[in-house]
Structures are given as C-alpha cells and as structure tokens.
Amino acid sequence: MCRLDALMYGLEINVKTDVSAMLVNIKDDGVDIVDKNMKYRRRQSTFVSRFKDVEHNCLACVAMINGAKSHFNTFLVEDRSICKMEAEAADIAVRTWLEEFPESEENEE
Asked: Residue 105: phi, psi to the nearest 5?
C-alpha cells in the first residue's frame, strides 16, 4: 500500500484519473514490475496491490503522471528494515530504471 498526495503547481490533482502507480521489485540486476496497475482507494488516498509468488528483494511504489511518465514521476522504497539491499543502491536502481522507462509503455494506456 502506498499513500500519495499529488500537487501540480501547488494545486491538488485528481489522482484517480491523472496518476498511475505500479509496484516494482528492485534486485541487484534490475527492476521487475510486480503490478503494472495498482488500484487507487480514494478514501484512504492510497494505491494498493495484491501479489503472490514474488521473490521479494526490495519493493517500491512508483507513481507517474499519465502522459508524461518519463518526466513526472516519484517512488517510495519500502521500509529500509525490510528491503534486502542498501538504501542508496535501491534508490539508484529505481532512478536509473525510470530514466530508461520506455515511451512505448507510456503510450499503452
């Protein structure tokens, strides 16, 4: 579960329609998408995902503005006590993956 408050130029935006979120698993050799379309729960202002059969290493929620994903995005890595890799390495891996996020992925929605 990932909580998100989104603002654009100081104004709140409609997270349900304007933001997409995905759950990723960060590994030493890259980032795997666990859930490409997390569900948004308006009452709790959270994105939620259910998953199984994932070789857990270090999970992160990635949120992106629809239509501008490679330019406007953020992420939150799970609690450092649960993540099985160094915090800085996990952050770098996700940032690198986001920089290379393919435009074709953006246009699928």
From this structure: -65, -40
